[in-house]
């Protein structure tokens, strides 16, 4: 199995008019934060909010007439399933998606809404994939692999083609690695157009599948590992994608969870756009390794925006805590009328906002005639939080952060 630049040019021609040519924009603020010259490709603006449409559609458009009539099948609990389902329905091609039984209901519902028959089977991707292969043989369907397919890789490669047409002097492409389809396609394009461009793979530290394969090791992911970048949490990279991508990759970085969270929050707060964990991986790499990218012109792809709204809310709130814009303080004082009012007045005079208060008289480390308050306050930043704490201390109510 080989992938050529001509394959990707042909894919670009097939996809034209069927998908969004998403914008690639310079981010002055992210450049200031990271120290790199940051350009962002907004693939979360595709109809199904992810780049996966490109590869899925390129594979569908090359089916023969009989294969179209019989239909296609895939195993996926993520963006590949939605992209394949959406475009298959648009083209009048029957589609079956096998998802693990534990797939969140919202993803099942969205895939069904695109017209797919959804089969729930297996406890994980591997078991779901086995079921899909079995159904593929029984029903004489065409299996569309989420990454280990040259047609799919060629479709994904059009992302880099568009980026380098718009910003030809990009110096570095940090690219998320899950199964390897995106980096195989993008690296093929980038190295053909600009041989000195640097290709940097990005993996979650919990799922170092590509890194492990480079080192000749089994993937070290724990069976209970849970990453916010679940879209690239793959136990084993594809054999074909690895063979194509490995010679083209300059380096692979392993990223810890807090950097994914911070990247999601920055995209929301700075670019006013929603990115899922895997979709924020390129920016997470810049945050985790600023020295590697400092001063370089970097092309970042927001590969997807399908994040659960409750998870997004949690990530944004946790970022406020990291920045000390939300601070929990514990104050111990005499249990007498007016104590809480006095403390509240001090906090208010300092310009902070009280979010919630917990009042505990039964804690054994508090005097019997005392009371313990846990107060969550909202501040401007870490310096403002310290000013509030200093003011409380001056009034005789020394707090401690909890």
TrEMBL record:
Enzyme Commission (EC) number: 4.3.1.19
Domain ACT: 328-402
Entries under SUPFAM superfamilies matching the protein: ACT-like, Tryptophan synthase beta subunit-like PLP-dependent enzymes
Pfam families: ACT_4, PALP
Needed cofactors: pyridoxal 5'-phosphate
Reactions mediated catalytically: L-serine = pyruvate + NH4(+)
Keyword Lyase assigned: yes
Full protein name: Threonine ammonia-lyase
Organism listed in the record: Phenylobacterium soli
């Amino acid at each position: 199995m080989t992938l050529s630049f001509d394959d990707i040019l042909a894919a670009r021609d097939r996809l034209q008019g069927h998908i969004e040519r998403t914008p690639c924009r310079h981010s002055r603020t992210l450049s200031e934060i990271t120290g790199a010259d940051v350009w962002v490709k907004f693939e979360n603006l595709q109809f199904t909010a992810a780049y996966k449409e490109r590869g899925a559609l390129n594979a569908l458009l090359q089916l023969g007439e009989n294969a179209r009539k019989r239909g296609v099948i895939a195993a996926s609990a993520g963006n590949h399933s939605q992209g394949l389902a959406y475009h298959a329905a648009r083209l009048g091609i029957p589609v079956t998606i096998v998802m693990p039984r534990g797939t969140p209901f919202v993803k099942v519902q969205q895939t069904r809404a695109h017209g797919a028959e959804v089969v729930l089977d297996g406890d994980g991707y591997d078991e779901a994939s086995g079921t899909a292969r079995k159904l593929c043989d029984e029903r004489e369907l065409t299996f569309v692999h989420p990454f280990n397919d040259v047609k799919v890789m060629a479709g994904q490669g059009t992302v880099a083609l568009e980026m380098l047409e718009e910003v030809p002097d990009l110096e570095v492409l940090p690219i998320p690695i899950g199964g390897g389809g995106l980096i195989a396609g993008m690296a093929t394009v980038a190295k053909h157009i600009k041989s000195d461009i640097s290709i940097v793979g990005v993996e979650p530290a919990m799922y170092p599948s590509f890194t492990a394969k480079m080192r000749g090791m089994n993937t070290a992911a724990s069976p209970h590992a849970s990453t916010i970048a679940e879209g690239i949490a793959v136990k084993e990279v594809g054999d074909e994608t690895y063979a194509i991508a490995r010679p083209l990759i300059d380096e692979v970085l392993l990223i810890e969870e807090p950097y994914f969270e911070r990247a999601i929050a920055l995209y929301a707060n700075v670019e006013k756009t929603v990115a899922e964990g895997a979709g924020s991986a390129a920016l997470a790499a810049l945050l985790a390794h600023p020295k590697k990218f400092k001063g370089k012109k970097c092309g970042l792809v927001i590969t997807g925006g399908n994040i659960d709204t409750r998870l997004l809310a949690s990530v944004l709130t946790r970022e406020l805590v990291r920045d000390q814009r939300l601070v929990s303080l514990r104050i111990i004082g005499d249990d007498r009328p007016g104590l809480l009012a006095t403390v509240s007045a001090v906090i208010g005079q300092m310009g902070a906002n009280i979010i919630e208060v917990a009042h505990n008289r039964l804690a054994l480390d508090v005097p019997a005639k005392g009371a313990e308050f846990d107060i969550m306050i909202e501040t401007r930043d870490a310096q403002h939080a310290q000013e509030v704490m200093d003011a409380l201390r001056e009034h005789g109510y020394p707090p401690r952060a909890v």
